[in-house]
Design goal:
Layout lengths: L4 H28 L1 E5 L5 E6 L4 E6 L9 H28 L18 H8 L7
Antiparallel strand pairs: 1-2, 2-3
Length: 129
C-alpha cells in the first residue's frame, strides 16, 4: 500500500526533527570538548576547544627560560598546530555519522581538501590540482 502525501510529509518532518536533535547534541558536545596536547618533551601543554580555538598554554618546566626565542616559538607553533589538527579530526569524527558518505572525503579532517573540492566531488566534477 502506497503512502499518501500527508503521511510522507509527516515522516519527513519526523526525520528532520530527529536529525535536528542529533545535530544539537553534537554541537553541544563540540562546544564542551577540550583537546589537550603536550609537546614531545612535555615542556608545553596546549588546550584547544572543539573548534580548534586556543584555550590555554601552560609551561610545565622551566626549560623554556633557557631556550632561544626562535626555538621556543617553534616548539609553541608545533604543539599548537598538533592540538588544532587533533581538534579537526575530532570535529570530523563527531559529525561524520550525520554526513552523507560523499561529504566525508579522505583528507577532510586534516584540512587537505577544500569545501569547493568536496562539493565538486559530490557533483562528479573534476577538481583542479
Amino acid at each position: 500500500m502506497a503512502l499518501d502525501s500527508e503521511e510522507m510529509m509527516r515522516q519527513a518532518q519526523e526525520r528532520l526533527r530527529q536529525t535536528e536533535e542529533r545535530l544539537a547534541k553534537v554541537r553541544k558536545e563540540v562546544e564542551e570538548t577540550r583537546i589537550t596536547v603536550r609537546s614531545t618533551d612535555n615542556m608545553i601543554t596546549v588546550v584547544v576547544d572543539g573548534k580548534g580555538e586556543l584555550v590555554s598554554i601552560a609551561f610545565n618546566t622551566a626549560k623554556w627560560r633557557r631556550m632561544a626565542p626562535a626555538e621556543l616559538g617553534a616548539a609553541l607553533v608545533k604543539t599548537i598546530n598538533k592540538a588544532k589538527e587533533d581538534s579537526r579530526a575530532e570535529l570530523m569524527q563527531s559529525y561524520s555519522g550525520m554526513m552523507p558518505k560523499p561529504l566525508v572525503p579522505s583528507g577532510a579532517a586534516e584540512g587537505r581538501i577544500s569545501l569547493e573540492d568536496m562539493l565538486n566531488r559530490m557533483l562528479g566534477r573534476s577538481t583542479a590540482s
